[in-house]
């Protein structure tokens, strides 16, 4: 393939991926919560974790993880159940924690714990969503030529990684500003409750729904 053809393929994948990236979902919810309740660094580390997860799924999609799932359906079942249980446990922790009395100035009194955990939370939340590998593999199958070069595949993965970290870093930076955080901190218990219910609901759905 020529450089122009490669660029056309990357552009078509980028056009679809940017829409998927900016749509609110579990990743967006996690970054928003950390930015508002724990500060910019915790949210930025989560953004990096999410982007790494996207990159890993992108590599898996390029190297044909869908074929592996077809050959060994139990692998996808393990991914769905394991991911669902992780999201459910995270939701329970958020929901239960929302009923505990919080310090008046959460941003100043307890940012360090979540900052350390930010990257891991972002990575695991992204990897735990079984819809991501299905979408990525479908996107690559529909957009990449059958004999796509290694360079083209890796370029698409780098593009997806860059979009993910750019978008979530922007969200983390904007929502950690004092004017936003001060307003939402007054509602921090309800933020955690809504986030907890959402994570629990999706966790149950992922763990119990039938494979497509």
Give a quick summary of the entry.
By secondary structure, the protein is an all-alpha fold.
What does this structure look like?
With 212 residues, this protein is an all-alpha fold. It has one domain. It is 83% helix and 0% strand. The chain has helices at residues 3-22, 26-37, 40-62, 65-71, 73-97, 106-109, 112-127, 131-143, 150-175, 178-185, 188-208. It is flat, with a radius of gyration of 18 Å. The two termini are 34 Å apart. GO terms for molecular function: amino acid transmembrane transporter activity. This is Lysine/threonine exporter LysE/YggA. Its main location: membrane.
Tell me the layout of helices and strands.
Layout: H1 3-22, H2 26-37, H3 40-62, H4 65-71, H5 73-97, H6 106-109, H7 112-127, H8 131-143, H9 150-175, H10 178-185, H11 188-208
Helix pairs in contact: 1-9, 2-3, 2-7, 2-9, 2-11, 3-7, 3-8, 3-9, 4-5, 5-11
Subcellular location: Cell membrane
GO molecular function: amino acid transmembrane transporter activity
Membrane topology: Multi-pass membrane protein
């Amino acid at each position: 393939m020529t450089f122009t053809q490669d660029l056309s393929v990357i552009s078509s994948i980028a056009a679809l991926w940017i829409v998927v990236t900016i749509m609110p979902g579990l990743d967006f919810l996690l970054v928003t919560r950390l930015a508002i309740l724990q500060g910019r660094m915790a949210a930025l580390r989560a953004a990096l974790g999410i982007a790494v997860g996207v990159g890993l799924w992108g590599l898996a999609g390029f190297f044909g993880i869908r074929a592996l799932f077809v050959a060994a359906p139990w692998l996808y079942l393990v991914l769905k159940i394991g991911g669902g249980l992780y999201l459910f446990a995270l939701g329970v922790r958020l929901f239960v924690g929302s009923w505990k009395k919080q310090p008046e100035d959460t941003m100043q009194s307890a940012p360090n714990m979540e900052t350390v955990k930010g990257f891991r939370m972002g990575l695991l939340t992204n990897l735990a969503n079984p819809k991501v590998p299905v979408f990525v593999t479908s996107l690559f199958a529909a957009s990449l030529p059958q004999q796509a070069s290694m360079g083209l595949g890796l370029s698409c993965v780098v593009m997806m990684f860059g979009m993910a970290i750019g978008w979530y870093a922007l969200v983390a930076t904007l929502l950690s500003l004092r004017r936003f955080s001060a307003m939402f901190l007054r509602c921090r218990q309800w933020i955690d409750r809504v986030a907890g219910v959402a994570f629990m609901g999706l966790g149950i759905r992922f763990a119990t729904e039938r494979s497509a």
